[in-house]
Amino acid sequence: MRTAKSSAASRRPAVILILLGAALVFSVLIVSIQSSLFTGSRRSVADSEEIRVLSDFQSRVQQCVARRGLGLTADIIDHCKLVLKFPEGTNSTWYNAQFKIFEPLEYKYDVCEAILLWEQYRNMTTVLTREYLDVRPDGWLDYAAKRIAQLGADKCYNRSLCEEHLNLILPAKPPFHPRQFKTCAVVGNSGDLLKTEFGQEIDEHDAVFRDNEAPVNEKYAKHVGLKRDFRLVVRGAARNMVAILNGSSEEVLIIKSVTHKDFNAMIKELPNPVYLFQGIVLRRGAKGTGMKSVELALSMCDIVDIYGFTVDPGYTEWTRYFSTPRKGHNPLQGRAYYQLLECLGVIRIHSPMRANRNQEWSDVPSKKFIRSAHAAALRLKRQQAGQEGNLGPFVNCKVWGTVDQDGPVSGSPDMGDTRKKSNYNKWELLRLESLRKEAQVHYAQMGGVSLYKMDGNKLDDLVCVKHTFRSES
Ligand SMILES: *[C@@H]1O[C@H](CO)[C@@H](O)[C@H](O)[C@H]1NC(C)=O
Ligand SMILES: *[C@@H]1O[C@H](CO)[C@@H](O)[C@H](O)[C@H]1NC(C)=O
Ligand SMILES: *[C@@H]1O[C@H](CO)[C@@H](O)[C@H](O)[C@H]1NC(C)=O
Ligand SMILES: *[C@@H]1O[C@H](CO)[C@@H](O)[C@H](O)[C@H]1NC(C)=O
To answer: CATH for 114-359+392-467?
Structure first.
């Protein structure tokens, strides 16, 4: 009896708390409903036009997936969101050890966000430069330190030490420009490349991007081509730079993650241009070096064709064209995401899975349609964030800087003769006037401003650097 009473007594405050809590939740609910009613009516007129454009665009994307998606279908959720579904009966045998689940057979995407992000890449600089470190707040102290492995400190307290590490691969300004090339091929390493003979077609592109240790030689020539222009490498592969770049002294090496004392020693003896990738860490969408190669290519090419990125849904392992299969990240998610990107006009997928190759791209929404969807997505996003007005290419510039002279080219005094005498800095010395017309027009339209991402995964935070020096160097 005693115990029962005391427990009832101790329960009473809890009941009161619950009631209070419920009342609080209820009033918050009322307030938020009221405020959404207010702002809702004010916005709805302005928003409805954007929503109409985006809904039309969604239907177009849905059609494109139906026609080009090899069985994938798109279910529209609203004007921004859709779900890509693999055909019923697809065998999901891919076990994701990290999340301890079998791969799901459907993926939800936000098309508005995707189109904002990927159209942005077309205007972006994706190579790390000195001007970026100078302009970005704490660029040298914090950010530079993150790009150097085994620095011995978490920040660049000693700036000259960090400069010593980076000088070798740090150009003063962007060595590459948006729209520099018309057509680019990005070649993944999938084993499906051996089922086709895309070699010649790949080589016909203005620039070819490959990744990691992908071999390029007579043995694989008919499958992957022989042209070598850019290679994006992760830290593990960077160790074998000398062997990878043997016989290809003009190939530009872009290190994806961090530089390192040992890499620097190697680079000092190499004739190749070598730079660091400057890009965000994408946590959504497909992962891996392949995605970064697409970002890199998109930052300098009008048309990006991808080869060797597909796997059959039934695979339980990644195959590689040059080695035995190995476990990797999940292929179904990549397959779906790349399909979305194709239907957003970002890339073109080439794959043996397309038995009758459709080299006709009328299923993909037109440039004009994409531009209007992009503009609508941007306006909607700004309105929802309560930021009206100004919608130019600089809306996302969080930090501005100005550079009024050409800085030093990359390099260090202790480079070997091979590097000193090589053409490694030819891209840095390239004059604006010798670029393709479209690149020059873009530069002029942007008023000589280069856009860079801050690190992290934010669409919105850009570092913007205005060049006011005379373009002829
Ligand atoms: C799915 O794949 C697994 C592993 O390869 C296999 O054991 C199973 O029979 C397959 N199921 C179907 C329905 O094909
Ligand atoms: C900073 O680094 C430079 C280059 O390695 C070195 O010469 C100098 O002694 C360092 N300064 C300090 C205060 O440690
Ligand atoms: C580079 O390739 C040539 C033949 O193509 C070979 O003889 C040489 O050993 C290679 N060098 C390195 C460092 O791999
Ligand atoms: C990209 O650059 C073009 C100029 O070439 C500009 O008109 C457009 O607004 C820019 N778009 C973005 C998303 O920055």
So the answer is: 3.90.1480.20
